[in-house]
Design goal:
7 helices, alpha/beta, 5 strands, about 10% strand, Nucleotidyltransferase, domain 5, elongated, about 45% helix, about 200 residues
Length: about 200
């Protein structure tokens, strides 16, 4: 929500966000509002199935996107940290560059389903792994173009998150502000009808 309000997503009304860290977090913003679905459980984009025969996931799924693009997945598959691969790629190491190209291909394939369902204006990528976005964004977008019909990705942008560790704080502030706005609006509506409205203590 913070990225949608003041960060990389502020130019868009409809977007999805992935945080590539220890796991893979996700969020969906539709018409400028956080979409939470039934019981607040929507937005688990990292648990979308990428390979039905892939590694088991803590969620009970198997072969989820998280099992291929999270920090833990990179460690398991390569024995290296993302920062190590990033440093090597910066130095022009061919193996590292090839690693990030394959990483981008997997990420693009994993995003395709969510893009088909939501047709967002932008995909925002954050989390620690995004520090190496310059090395995997090109193949990520190429894979999206290969897998997703043009009609479902018109004008789609792939952008890196901007707020870093402050995103959660900014997002919480935005949600609190939205809640206050809705209470004030309701209070005014009641007042117009000659009714009393009291803010709950909690």
């Amino acid at each position: 929500m913070g990225e949608a309000w003041l960060g990389a997503g502020k130019r868009f009304k409809n977007l999805i966000l992935l945080t590539l860290g220890t796991g893979v977090g996700g969020a969906i913003v539709l018409d400028g509002k956080l979409f939470v679905g039934h019981q607040g459980a929507a937005g688990e984009l990292g648990l979308v199935t990428l390979n039905p025969d892939g590694p088991p996931c803590n969620s009970g799924n198997q072969g989820s996107l998280e099992q291929y693009v999270s920090v833990q997945a990179i460690r398991r598959a390569t024995g290296k940290e993302p920062a190590e691969w990033g440093k090597l790629a910066q130095e022009g190491d061919k193996e590292a560059i090839a690693f990030w190209q394959e990483y981008g291909r997997l990420l693009g394939a994993g995003l395709a389903s969510s893009i088909y369902v939501l047709a967002p204006e932008a995909v925002v990528i954050g989390g620690g792994v995004s520090a190496s976005a310059e090395f995997f964004f090109p193949t990520t977008f190429a894979e999206i173009e290969r897998r997703v019909l043009p009609s479902s990705r018109v004008g789609l942008e792939l952008v890196k998150a901007e707020l870093g560790n402050q995103a959660g704080i900014v997002g919480a502030a935005k949600l609190a502000w939205q809640m206050l706005e809705s209470k004030i609006k309701l209070q005014l509506e009641w007042k117009e009808k000659g009714l009393e409205f009291f803010f709950p203590s909690k």
